[in-house]
Amino acid sequence: MTAARFWRAWLFGVLIAATAVAAARADEPLKIRIGWAVAPAQLTPILFAHPGLARHLGQSYTLEPTRFAGSSVALQALAAGELDLCPMTFNVLGPAILNAGLDDLRIVSDEVRDGYEGYDTNRYMVRKDSGIETVEDLKGKIAAVNGLGGGQDIFMRVMLRRHHLEYPGDYTIVEAQFPNMKGLLADKKVDLIVGVKPFTMDPGLQAIGRDLFTQRDAVGVTDFLFITARAPYIAQHRAALVDFFEDDMRATRWYLDPANHDAAIKIISDFIKVPPERLGWVLTKNDLYHDPRLHPDLSAIQQNVDLLQEFGFIKQHIDVASHADLSLVEEAAKRVQ
What we know:
By secondary structure, this protein is α/β, with parallel strands linked by helices. Helices cover 39% and strands 17% of the residues.
């Protein structure tokens, strides 16, 4: 065999092997890397803990949940190609599109809504002995929020502006983590805190605090947490993603079914290491709302993004509907009856 014929045969063999490897990889399930921050508001890390809910898991896809401190950190992972499905809040969506250049970002499914009729809402609380009876009484006071420019901050400012109080002239804002809110209020270091579950279920907080207003009072329904992906990823992996959302939808409906409540609470209790007797409110109407169709409320997201522009956190209008692709959950819904 001449050298030329040898190298042609060798190259042909390499190409055949490469083709075989590529074909094998094409047959492998898609690994979906999905982020989450807090359970049980997000069911992601326990989504398929009950047997039989995930009919396509291990067939067309596998799931790799990764915990992030919040939406902004998860967004960095998405932008770096280290995450495929990214949980997001409205206050991160705007900067992601306008500042981070992620114009191909798409809202694909829903996670949690606040203020939905008949369900719970986040609270803005004062001390019972504070003498603060109206929103106007907050003039000159100190409010604690979990992050400047975050959702609870924006919603509070909306309510106070409605009562002719403007930041920073009329009141002060400090940042604090949710677990520290009760202590700040009890020690009279702040006058108003944000109350979210499970912290509002603390008997100690209930003993000293009361609601001044709620998030629903301030802005109505808020689609507070939703899932995003980038358009090229959706186009490349549409079939596997529809399979995942079908399983996600089936699992979400299982968790929401009152007949499964005790079993669901046991799963959640084991995961977050909280006794089940303290979790009776979870996934009931005393909780925030989870849509069984995984269908985001785009009009509510639009309203909240517009607030970002109104308060100067983003400089341009964003058309939320043009950054949504609900075809995945809509196709999945046809399979889940």
